[in-house]
Design a protein that fits this description.
The structure holds two protein chains of two kinds.
Chain A: H1 2-9, H2 21-24, E1 30-32, E2 38-40, H3 45-50, H4 58-61, H5 98-106, H6 117-122, H7 126-129, H8 143-150, H9 159-171, H10 178-189, H11 192-198, H12 202-205, H13 207-211, H14 215-221, H15 230-234, H16 257-261, H17 289-322, E3 367-368, H18 372-396, H19 401-410, H20 413-448, H21 461-474, H22 489-513, H23 515-521, H24 525-557, H25 567-570, E4 572-573, H26 575-581, H27 583-591, H28 598-606
Helix pairs in contact in A: 17-24, 18-19, 18-20, 18-24, 20-22, 22-23, 22-24, 26-27
Chain B: H1 3-38, H2 51-62, H3 75-80, H4 85-90, H5 102-106, H6 115-118, E1 127-132, E2 164-171, E3 174-177, H7 184-193, H8 199-209, H9 240-248, H10 252-256, H11 265-268
Antiparallel strand pairs in B: 1-2, 2-3
Classes of the chains: A mainly alpha, B mainly alpha.
């Protein structure tokens, strides 16, 4: 009868001689255990055949199955000599994973006889990481080229599968994508319950979260691959030999760390000092006090800077509107009538309070203010800063979905990084150009005897007084604004902040771009390098907020300045603006004969003299 | 009070408001920036109306590392989870009474709607079968599992992992497919409130949801897997090879490759 049955039905597939897929090819071949756990018995036939074990039949690993349908099956022991007996490709001997299993058992993940049962239960076995990977042919080493050499000793049958499998392992530590490696490790190491059972201390417990703050992880998150994941550092030559950092054989042991960093794929040529670079920057008070302090300082600076700027913006807006200093739209501004017209004094300069309200001025600018060097500086700065924000901000907010969409729009993380770096170089060159222009300009003025520190961005005691009296004006306690210099206190504050920001961003950017070089030459690298890396993002955010809120307000949004001032392009400032905020510069220009006396013109106009 | 005095009071009130707003905005910008960037990326949660489905998805997630054979996501469950009131309560793995056969019976839920077996028929009533898609789903490919790939000998790949076979009844002279979508809301509400209901209340809801169905002791394999199958495989789109397999229950290799051919009660007694 059996023969008749066979004849009617046909034979099982040669690749599945036991016809296990008769049942196991169905996705819903699942059932609940007595404990209520849903077990999955499905085998994806297409994928399995493409996997590294695809040439093995099921019973070569599940060797205890002798009948069908079978009952409970024993766990497969990867270490036993179980398969390849029909290939004997390794010089006639059977193959086994025993050696690597032995290495693994001695690693931090291996089960020790002294472990508590709950810890033993948490330790991973082979297939926790190895999900029966699919084959991936090496692109850079044609298999047939190398295969010829293998065949000198080994038999052809079966060697190809072994070669592809092994060569893949040699090229990369794992076939998993780097981000998947991180998620795999994090599935235990970031699990609070796991941490409690194992009894992890603070730095180890926060290893995943601190790694996720690094540029390494952010690049992986956006699809980059040329950066470090967990096993890049924690697994040396053998991925199975991960050991605790305190173990002298560990790749992250303080004595070995620099060698790990120095590998060809990471930071070749870096000095031993690179071991000071902490890839798990902890902001915890005890583990990373300097980072904690830097974070607190940066946040305090951000809070108080923003608070000051918001307060100034609010009060200035109120006072300008309340005093009818100007129409909101710059082009609708008209000079007001002078109430009541006084008799023209002998020296009228400074004798008309709030003169800026009564003068005629051109929105495109009346008085010279900036040289064309500064115009170029500003233009390049505006472009490069915007580009830095566009390409850098998504990396800062690396968990936002919007950031990922944006990076994709830019052409991916590698293109974004390239743009950011080229942009940073132009940004830095522009800073150098600006410093040169300043130094040469100051040198020329000193030589000509025309240098006047009051006309520079250098902060002086008067600036504090100006701030005090200006705020009194905003509060309505004074009737006029103080007479201020070419650069008023707000501009000096902004300029100094920019000077600080550009220096920090350039320095910290260099730490990220050239860690091998910077760690060697930067003083107190152990602290300063790590702090600077943290500050690149934090400082960028502060700079972005100051530019987006403060700078935009002062030059574009403040009543009477809207929608823009042409100074950035013409290098000239409007009369009313110069008189209102830089009266001393106006006064100086009138005395030098560069500008006309506006008081005289206003008084003449009020007196009916329209000549 | 003089006009000047009023102006000063106004200025100080404005100042107080500005300071408060500035403090709030500065604090919000400073600290929310930090919180915002540390937020973990959103993980797409499986679309599921039922606690059963959520439970299954959670188990699948946890068992990711237990499964060595490259399991793939259950697209079928994603679509049907909130389109069948049966799944809402019973999950797609409801068959557990016969321990040794539960997985084999469960595998059918990928291809068969629950009514295919559990529809209560009137005496002498005839039914036929047709492919059913849940509302809103419009798969274009042929249903998964009805065609064999002659090159590999496995199922032909398709993008349609959704369609299921469902029974059709003749109502007023026209064949009408039996669906179970209408009771989804009721079933979901029942699952949420189940713990608070009395035995009588539970029975009332269950009777209502189970109307028109029956709990089958056994469905003979041969009702479908034989030359006299109630399913017309050819008309339903199955190719010749797959039809052959299903009608003959794909048993070939199993007979020839085991020294001891063993079938438990599942096939030997109850279903004969």
């Amino acid at each position: 009868m059996a023969i008749v049955f066979c004849f009617l039905i046909g034979h099982a597939d040669a690749r599945d001689p036991e016809n296990c897929l008769f049942c196991h090819k169905y996705k819903r071949l699942r059932a609940y255990t007595d404990k209520g756990t849903l077990r999955n018995f499905y085998v994806d036939d297409h994928l399995y055949q493409e996997s590294v074990h695809g040439k093995l039949s099921c019973v070569e690993c599940h060797s205890d199955i002798e009948k069908v349908p079978h009952g409970t099956v024993e766990k497969v022991d990867c270490a036993k000599v179980c398969h390849l007996d029909r290939w004997k490709a390794m010089s006639g001997t059977d193959f086994s994973h025993k050696d690597v299993a032995d290495i693994f058992s001695k690693s931090v993940h291996g089960k020790n006889p002294g472990d508590k049962p709950e810890i033993t239960a948490l330790k991973p076995d082979c297939k926790y990481c190895h999900l029966n990977d699919l084959y991936s042919l090496p692109q850079d080493v044609p298999p047939e080229k190398v295969m010829k050499r293998c065949l000198n000793c080994h038999k052809e049958k079966g060697i190809e599968q072994i070669f592809v499998h092994m060569s893949h392992r040699m090229r990369q530590k794992t076939s998993r994508p780097p981000l998947e490696v991180v998620e795999l490790c994090a599935s235990c190491h970031a699990d609070k319950d796991f941490q409690n059972v194992v009894g992890m201390d603070q730095p180890v417990a926060e290893a995943v979260s601190t790694y996720k703050e690094t540029i390494h992880y952010r690049i992986l998150q956006f699809g980059g691959t040329d950066t470090a994941n967990c096993i890049s550092c924690h697994a040396n030559e053998s991925i199975h030999n991960i050991r605790p950092g305190s173990d002298p054989q560990s790749s992250v042991n303080p004595d070995n760390r620099y060698q790990t960093c120095q590998t060809e794929a990471c930071h070749p040529g870096a000095s031993a000092l690179i071991a000071n670079v902490d890839s798990h920057l902890s902001k915890h008070k005890e583990k990373g006090p300097e980072i904690h302090l830097a974070e607190v300082i940066m946040q305090s600076v951000m809070f108080f800077t923003l608070f000051l700027l918001f307060t100034l913006m609010g009060m200035e807006t109120y006072r300008r509107v309340r005093n009818h200093d100007a129409r909101f739209f710059r082009w609708r501004r008209k000079p007001q009538n002078l109430p009541p017209a006084p008799v023209m004094p002998a020296d009228p300069i400074g004798k008309i309070p709030n003169l800026h309200r009564y003068v005629n001025s051109s929105p495109k600018g009346d008085f010279p203010r900036y040289s064309w060097h500064i115009i170029i500086n500003h233009t390049v700065m505006a472009i490069t800063f915007s580009m830095a924000v566009i390409t850098g901000l998504p990396l800062f907010f690396h968990n936002s979905e919007l950031s990922h969409k944006f990076i994709n729009l830019l052409g991916g993380i590698n293109v974004t990084r390239l743009i950011h770096r080229i942009n940073a170089i132009i940004f830095t060159l522009n800073c150098v150009y600006h410093v040169l222009v300043l130094l040469l300009g100051i040198g020329r003025q000193i030589k000509n005897g025309t240098f006047d520190i009051r006309r520079t961005q250098f902060p002086l005691w008067k600036d504090l007084k100006d701030f005090y009296f200006d705020f009194r004006y905003f509060l309505g306690l004074d009737k006029t604004r103080p007479k201020m210099e070419k650069f008023m206190y707000k501009q000096k504050l902004h300029y100094l902040a920019q000077l600080w920001g550009c220096s920090i961003l350039t320095l910290s950017g260099c730490c990220l771009l050239f860690p091998e070089f910077m760690v060697k030459y930067i003083p107190f690298a152990k602290v300063s390098f790590n702090v600077l890396r943290l500050m690149h993002g934090e400082e960028s955010i502060l700079a972005f907020l100051v530019i987006a809120l403060w700078h935009m307000y002062n030059v574009h949004i403040a009543p009477g300045r809207f929608p823009l001032q042409w100074t950035f392009w013409t290098g000239r400032i409007a009369k009313d603006h110069q008189i209102e905020e830089h009266f001393l510069e106006y006064e100086r220009q009138v005395k030098e004969g560069v500008a006309e006396c506006e008081e005289e013109k206003v008084l003449k106009r009020e007196a009916g003299d329209v000549r | 009070m003089s006009d000047n005095g009023n102006k000063r009071i106004e200025a100080f009130i404005v100042f107080a408001i500005v300071v408060a707003v500035a403090a709030f905005l500065s604090g919000w910008l400073t600290f929310s920036v930090q919180f915002e960037r540390k937020k973990e990326p959103k993980v797409e949660k499986p679309k599921a109306a039922s606690l059963q489905t959520l439970h299954i998805k959670e188990q699948e997630r946890k068992q990711l590392h237990d499964h060595y054979h490259l399991g793939v996501e259950d697209k079928n469950l994603d679509v049907w989870a909130d389109k069948s009131h049966c799944i809402v309560c019973h999950s797609p793995y409801p068959h557990g009474r016969i321990k040794q056969a539960q997985a084999i019976i469960n595998l059918h839920t990928e291809f068969l709607a629950c009514n295919s077996c559990h529809l209560k028929l009137e005496a002498g009533e005839e039914i036929q079968f047709a492919w059913l898609n849940p509302s809103g789903a419009h798969p274009t490919g042929k249903p998964y599992g009805i065609q064999m790939d002659p090159k590999t000998g496995y199922f032909l790949q398709t993008d349609n992992h959704i369609s299921k076979l469902a029974p059709q009844r003749k109502i007023n002279g026209a064949w009408q497919t039996m669906q179970t979508e209408a009771g989804v809301d009721k079933a979901s509400k029942y699952m949420e409130e189940k713990g608070r209901l009395t035995a009588e209340q539970k029975k009332a809801v269950e009777d209502d949801l189970h109307k028109g169905t029956e709990l089958k002791e056994f469905v003979k394999c041969s009702q479908c897997h034989s030359m006299q199958s109630v399913l017309n495989f050819q008309e339903l789109g199955f190719d010749a090879a797959r039809t052959n397999q299903l009608q003959r229950m794909e048993m070939g290799g199993m007979l020839t490759n085991y020294d001891t051919f063993y079938f438990p009660d599942l096939f030997e007694k109850k279903f004969k």
